[in-house]
Write a sequence for this structure.
């Protein structure tokens, strides 16, 4: 069997050649050289025909193994080279981003890849062709804030992640209270089960504000603030609900504040935001953190009060909840019930946007379709 | 809750337009979600008796039914199977028009003529039950051919579907709704008393069949032992013997149907009827199926199980993960200790009332509302009973409810039915009426009204709240003080100061919110946005000015998204996510914004720039202590922008950042090397950190600055961009510019100083320009050179601008040429050549110090 190919040497040669490949071109050439039609491997295959069946079987088996080995080596090296070339290409794209030349259209490209070039090239202008658009929710929130600022309110904010105390306990909703069923809560893997959560409403900001206000005597009182922000409820999204949504909350703690002031505030806000022919009305409701409590409705913005399908022929659309701050809430934060009274209200920012712009499906708000974003 | 008007009229003489009544209910906070008219348009429907039922060849869903409708047999085809020969059913003959305008015609199905239709409760718009034909109770003398409405005693009625607030268990009953409504309308309200001494059981149907002295007492028939009076503060038992289980009277079944419940049998129906009418759940047991012939109420042992009526085996007695869940469950057992029901929530199958039941034990109890709430929540088992108990039933209403049950059952329980004399009544600490003091002045202070004490008294009286004026100190200014007694059916009204607010709401509610005064309050404090809020608005406007539109992307992301963001676990995780895969809170806005770009690219509108302002969340470095209540999560508000318009790349992002820095008047900032930027998400060679410049000036070119990083700018990693399929025309990953600013830091003027607030004088003397080009090592940034120039130039240096960048052999490897135009000017004279030469030398020397740059 002296003329039998030395398979071991053949594989070794291929391995050396493959390892020597440095570029995509190299590896392509080496592939032809060690595994192509004219490669020693293919020659050896062709020579099989001359052998007797037993030898042919034996050698064929060994040649097959050799090919598998060589193919594997080729694949691995090819991947390595591709990765290295990609990384090299990234490295050669190196920029010093502080070499920013402000003049448009005459700026020079300064990548290290151009190190051998002797001329400078211009880079694309960074001037925008169109103005972008604020999200409808931002626009709505800004406008609501402005209306309330004009009425003498400050704007306060609080964190998205809250403890049970701020979201529920201090708001007169003790653990296991059935009223918790009013909010489907997302709980987090922080601390003991159900102690940390994504706020279900902006009301915890009230607690933060009041705690801060009484931290140094009553120095921080009175409070006149609205609190916009993102809230989370475990509701399956549909045309009128999103599990992540925006609310704006109002809180006034002052001397001599009454339900009449609350009703007046809501009426003034309603006409200021929705228009002079839009009014408000209150009806009794239940919220653990206000007493007396009310739900407030505004004139249907579709039919302007004459009755239509949207408002179930009533002429009114429910917008939010409100009431006088419950004494239990004042107790929780340490505000003297006999000296101070207060009211609170809250409603959906997204819902205001939906009402005013007649958005059929709320889900359009976080789909981020540029055709939608550009409308507002 | 579905409330038929006819049922309300049992309690007060309501009249007038139902629409007005609905509006009044709304104004009382008993919001009517729907008003439904029922029992109209049934003139053509007659009672028919089923004579014959035969199959139809080739049909397995419908059968041929022959009925007698008074004048001979009528052949119809029917698809319902819930009736038998001899049953009385409603027939809509050919020519009849049903409610809703459905006209009955003669039809032929599978060769069989159908001369009319047998009707379900839904087809007659009497109920939601469309499962089978409405079968009449045969015991009430209905006869074939009789008008259906006459046989059923149906008159046109109105059903109000009322949303009852969670704090008003009393209003979750017909009587409770009637009480509020009557009070507002000034109508007399009364719950008819049940006469317990009425005819004995022998005269079934004549009232409560309470047996004479000869009858065995309830104590001799059964026993009740309550081991845990905290979970079950009151438990009563009655026994009715000689009961024949059968259908309820038509009128009763009809009311249940209107209220949305299905009639089952006279015993169960009576229990349901009482619950709907009075709000008190009761539970009837088959006494003969109770081991030991009695009941034992105890706390469930840890891990004890029971199979409830719905066929589910439930484990009890162990606290769940829910906050405040003590794991205390109230178990109703038979006298031998075997569980037969979860107290106040659901019974077990073992002692259910069946057709063979003859002795009924009736449970009427008061369970601790909080205990019911936590058990019901943990088991995810909410029933009509549990929903009422957890809100708080009236412990004083128990006897009336039990009496009413016996009275109703007696109507159909058979001639031998006897209510055993006496009641077993086990009591612990049952809530009694709340007594409190209410100041008229406080009510007026809260409402902005001017009520006098007697007005308040007369507003509260009709809803069952007794108020007596105990002192009239300062009556002149509305200072009367009232002693108020709150009935036990109003557990929502609390004692003391809180109760004063609760009573104030009742005053307002019965008076009418719409009639209360309104006024716009005024206070001396101005309203305003904070500097942070104003700056944040400006930031957004600047990005818009740069052609970017604001997006709103998801807070909930997947594990893949977190990896893409280059942030290592642990992550903040939602324990009860809406979508299992998306259970993490985002650590970056990259996934959201990139997905938004992909969404638009898929719609052939991927040539765009987007930004978002929002919060990202990081798992706290130090995990919070168990039970500790400070949220230790790290949150930061960020502005992120993705630049994906045609031709955009890192420079676009830098341009946007420069515009922002200029807009905020941030005079001095620096870039940190890309290697120092966090996260694998950025292109390692085409990004930079954005850092503030510390107050200590750096030595020369190449010296480090002590600084706070507030953002990154550059390009996204092409591997990530490519793996998400954002490819350019050449098949390579698109260049995507990226800007990420921690605006909490950026907008903090202490951490990132702004230019001075005070106006700087402007020189009125001519300025001179000097151009300087340096060969600078690649590891020294152009902005560093610029800063060194600015410091060296001092007060006379008006501006510095990089105007040319150049690489090539002339400059040498690892360096490039940076050319700056320096403009010098003095406030008080024109700079002469000598001065300019001095300034020039100073600048050159400063840049060359450190040996990393040389003048070209």
């Amino acid at each position: 069997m002296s003329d039998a190919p030395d398979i071991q040497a053949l594989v070794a040669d291929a391995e050396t050649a493959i390892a020597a490949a440095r570029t995509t071109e190299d590896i392509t050439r080496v592939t032809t050289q060690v595994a192509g039609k004219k490669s020693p491997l293919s020659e050896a295959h062709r020579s099989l025909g001359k052998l007797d069946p037993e030898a042919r079987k034996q050698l064929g088996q060994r040649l097959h193994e050799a090919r598998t080995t060589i193919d594997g080596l080729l694949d691995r090296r090819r991947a390595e080279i591709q990765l290295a070339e990609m990384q090299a290409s990234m490295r050669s794209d190196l920029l010093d981003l502080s070499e920013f030349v402000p003049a448009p259209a005459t700026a020079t490209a300064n990548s290290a890849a151009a190190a051998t070039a002797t001329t400078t090239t211009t880079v694309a202008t960074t001037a925008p062709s169109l103005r972008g658009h604020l999200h409808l929710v931002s626009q709505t929130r800004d406008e609501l804030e402005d209306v309330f600022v004009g009425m003498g309110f400050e704007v306060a904010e609080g964190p998205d992640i809250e403890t049970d105390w701020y979201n529920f306990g201090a708001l007169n909703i003790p653990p296991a209270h059935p009223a918790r069923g009013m909010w489907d809560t997302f709980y987090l893997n922080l601390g003991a089960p159900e102690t940390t959560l994504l706020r279900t409403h902006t009301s915890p900001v009230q607690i933060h504000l009041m705690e801060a206000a009484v931290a140094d005597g009553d120095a921080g009182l009175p409070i006149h603030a609205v609190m916009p922000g993102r809230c989370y409820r475990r509701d399956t999204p549909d045309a009128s609900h999103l599990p992540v949504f925006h609310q704006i909350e109002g809180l006034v703690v002052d001397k001599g504040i009454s339900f009449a002031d609350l009703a007046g505030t809501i009426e003034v806000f309603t006409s200021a935001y929705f228009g002079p022919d839009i009014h408000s009305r209150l009806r009794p409701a239940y919220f653990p953190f206000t007493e007396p409590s009310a739900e407030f409705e505004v004139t249907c913005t579709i039919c302007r009060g004459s009755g239509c399908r949207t408002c179930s022929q009533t002429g009114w659309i429910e917008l939010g909840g409100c009431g006088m701050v419950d004494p239990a809430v004042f107790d929780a934060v340490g505000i003297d019930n006999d000296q101070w009274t207060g009211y609170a209200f809250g409603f959906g920012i997204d819902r205001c946007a939906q009402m005013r712009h007649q958005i059929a499906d709320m889900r359009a708000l976080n789909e981020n379709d540029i055709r939608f974003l550009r409308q507002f | 809750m579905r409330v038929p008007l006819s049922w309300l009229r049992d309690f007060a003489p309501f009249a007038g337009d139902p629409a007005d009544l609905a509006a009044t209910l709304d104004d009382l906070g008993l919001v009517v979600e729907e008003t439904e008219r029922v029992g109209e348009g049934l003139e053509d429907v007659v009672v028919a008796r089923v004579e014959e039922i035969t199959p139809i060849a080739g049909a397995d869903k419908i059968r041929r039914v022959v009925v007698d409708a008074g004048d001979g047999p009528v052949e119809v085809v029917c698809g319902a199977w819930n009736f038998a020969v001899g049953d009385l059913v409603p027939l809509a003959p050919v020519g009849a028009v049903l409610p809703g305008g459905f006209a009955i015609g003669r039809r032929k199905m599978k060769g069989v003529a159908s001369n009319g239709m047998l009707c379900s409760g839904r087809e007659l718009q009497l109920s939601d039950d469309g499962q089978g034909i409405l079968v009449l109770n045969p015991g009430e003398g209905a006869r074939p051919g009789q008008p259906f409405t006459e046989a059923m005693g149906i008159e046109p009625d109105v059903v109000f579907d009322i949303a009852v607030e969670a704090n008003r268990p009393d209003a979750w009953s017909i009587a409770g709704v009637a009480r509020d409504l009557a009070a507002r309308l000034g109508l007399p309200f009364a719950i008819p008393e049940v006469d317990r001494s009425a005819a004995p059981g022998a005269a079934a149907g004549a009232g409560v069949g309470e047996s004479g002295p000869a009858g065995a007492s309830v104590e001799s028939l059964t026993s009740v032992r309550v081991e845990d009076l905290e979970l079950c503060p009151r438990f009563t038992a009655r026994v009715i013997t000689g009961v024949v289980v059968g259908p309820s009277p038509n009128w009763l079944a009809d009311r249940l149907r209107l209220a949305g419940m299905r009639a089952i049998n006279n015993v169960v129906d009576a229990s349901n009827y009482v619950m709907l009418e009075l709000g008190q759940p009761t539970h009837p047991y088959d006494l003969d199926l109770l081991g030991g012939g009695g009941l034992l109420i105890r706390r469930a042992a840890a891990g004890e199980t029971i199979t409830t009526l719905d066929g589910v085996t439930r484990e009890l007695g162990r606290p769940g993960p829910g906050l405040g869940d003590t794991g205390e469950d109230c178990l109703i057992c038979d006298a031998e200790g075997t569980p037969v029901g979860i107290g106040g929530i659901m019974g077990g199958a073992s002692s259910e009332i069946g057709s063979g039941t003859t002795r009924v034990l009736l449970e009427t109890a008061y369970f601790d509302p909080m205990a019911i709430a936590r058990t019901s929540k943990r088991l995810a088992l909410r029933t009509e009973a549990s929903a009422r108990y957890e809100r708080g039933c009236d412990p004083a209403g128990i006897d009336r409810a039990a009496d009413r049950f016996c009275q109703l059952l007696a109507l159909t329980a058979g001639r031998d039915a006897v209510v055993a004399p006496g009641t077993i009544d086990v009591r612990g600490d049952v809530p009694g009426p709340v007594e409190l003091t209410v100041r008229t002045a406080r009510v007026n202070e809260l409402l902005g009204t001017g009520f006098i004490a007697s007005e308040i008294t007369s507003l509260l009286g009709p809803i069952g709240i007794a108020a007596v004026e105990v002192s009239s100190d300062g009556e002149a200014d509305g200072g009367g003080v009232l002693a108020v007694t709150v009935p036990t059916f109003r557990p929502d009204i609390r004692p003391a100061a809180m109760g004063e607010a609760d009573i104030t709401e009742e005053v307002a509610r019965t008076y009418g919110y719409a009639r209360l005064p309104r006024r716009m309050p005024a206070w001396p404090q101005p309203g305003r946005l904070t500097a942070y809020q104003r700056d944040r608005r400006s930031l957004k406007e600047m990005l818009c000015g740069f052609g970017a539109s604001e997006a709103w992307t998801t807070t909930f992301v997947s594990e893949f998204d977190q990896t893409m963001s280059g942030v290592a676990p642990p992550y903040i995780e939602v324990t009860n996510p809406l979508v299992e895969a998306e259970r993490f809170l985002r650590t970056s806005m990259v996934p959201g914004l990139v997905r938004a770009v992909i969404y638009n690219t898929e719609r052939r509108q991927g040539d765009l720039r987007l930004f978002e302002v929002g919060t990202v969340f990081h798992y706290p470095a130090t995990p919070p202590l168990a039970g500790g209540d400070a949220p230790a999560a790290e949150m930061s508000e960020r502005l992120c922008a993705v630049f994906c318009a045609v031709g955009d790349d890192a420079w676009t992002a830098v341009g946007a950042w420069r515009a922002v820095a200029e807009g905020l008047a941030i005079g001095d900032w620096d870039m940190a090397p890309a290697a120092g930027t966090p996260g694998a998400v950025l292109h390692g060679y085409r990004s930079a950190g954005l850092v503030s410049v510390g107050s200590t000036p750096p030595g020369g070119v190449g010296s480090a600055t002590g600084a706070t990083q507030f953002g990154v700018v550059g390009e996204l990693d092409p591997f990530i961009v490519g793996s998400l399929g954002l490819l350019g025309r050449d098949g390579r990953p698109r260049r995507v510019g990226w800007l990420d600013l921690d605006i909490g830091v950026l907008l903090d003027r202490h951490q990132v100083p702004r230019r001075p607030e005070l106006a700087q004088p402007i020189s009125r003397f001519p300025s001179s320009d000097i151009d300087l080009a340096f060969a600078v090592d690649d590891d020294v940034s152009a902005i560093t050179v610029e800063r060194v120039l600015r410091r060296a130039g001092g007060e006379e240096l008006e501006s510095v601008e990089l105007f040319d960048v150049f690489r090539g052999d002339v400059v040498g490897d690892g360096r490039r040429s940076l050319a700056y135009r320096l403009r010098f000017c003095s406030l008080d004279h024109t700079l002469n050549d000598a001065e300019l030469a001095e300034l020039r030398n100073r600048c050159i020397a400063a840049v060359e110090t450190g040996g990393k740059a040389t003048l070209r």
